[in-house]
Design goal:
homodimer, Arc Repressor Mutant, subunit A, two-stranded antiparallel sheet, binds manganese (II) ion, binds zinc ion, DNA-binding
DNA sequence: ATTCTTATTGAAAAATATTTTCAATAAGGA
DNA sequence: TCCTTATTGAAAATATTTTTCAATAAGAAT
């Protein structure tokens, strides 16, 4: 099910601003801020309001179609989200982000922490950052072992 | 080594605003925003400027004495950080946060992801959220299994 | 204790970011 | 083509964060 079907399913409309925001995110390999998305939409001669960018991001986040990426400073950048449980891996040099499957098993971690703290854990935020293949090549970076 | 020694070591001064910010964070069991910290400092009759709260949080974060906590909406809340590698576990009801040791071994996770993506991973952001023991008791919450 | 140096403070202003309001518009069903 | 109403966007209101700079006070030196 693509995003348009998802909207229909929810009784929401497929509008121009929503199309543009999705399109801009599809183009980009890096997470984008609302301002960045707006700027790019103007550059593409698609005149939409900044307010709509905000509203669209909220909506799409709600629907699980985009995800917010948390950084050292900036936590207001968004990427398109694949359906399912995924996390992001962000390049510290160029900012490019890729998803990795959430097939990870954190339960072995969780159990002792739940026991120790008495908390019941039901959500997690997991993100990795490092250097992407391109940037490794470009900067001659290699693992310090 | 306590925070005052740490500041000295860096040639930084132990000032009134810094004392107050640390003190407010020590009182609180939950992560606090700059505004919240400022409000509490005023309530405690410790008149410091909001600007100093911002500057102090930046500084202390830099020094690893406080950490920023990322939430669904709010990502500008800070908690005191123990020295070493820790992560946070936040209660979705009352907001209380506890640290858990970073002794977790993510390397078994990392290896396949590095292989698959070509990234070299060197940092991670990990946070859990759930329900704390007090809120479980208070709300009659219990694990749905 | 007094003086000196300069890191730090805080008021104010500026810059940014986000939300609210509401009349006008357009999406999509009838 | 018409109708209903979800959605848009300009403008204003709010909120957040940063910059500036003269005044202050931390802490070393004397
Ligand atoms: Mn996961
Ligand atoms: Mn860790
Ligand atoms: Zn964040
Ligand atoms: Zn890169």
């Amino acid at each position: 099910m693509d995003w348009q079907e998802k909207l229909n399913q929810e009784g929401l409309r497929v509008t121009h601003p929503r199309r543009v925001v999705i399109s801009v995110l599809e183009q980009s390999g890096t997470p984008l801020s609302p301002q960045a998305i707006h700027r790019r939409s103007l550059e593409a001669k698609e005149e939409i309001g900044l307010v709509s960018v905000y509203r669209t991001l909220d909506l799409l986040t709600e629907l699980g179609l985009v995800r917010r990426v948390h950084g050292q400073n900036e936590c207001q950048c968004y990427v398109l989200a694949s359906p399912g449980h995924y996390h992001h891996l962000v390049c510290q040099h160029c900012g490019s982000a890729v998803e990795f499957s959430g097939m990870e098993d954190l339960s072995s971690l969780l159990a002792p922490i739940e026991l120790e703290t008495g908390f019941t854990i039901n959500e997690h935020l997991l993100q990795f950052s490092g250097v992407c293949p391109e940037c490794q090549r470009r900067t001659g970076y290699h693992d310090q072992e």
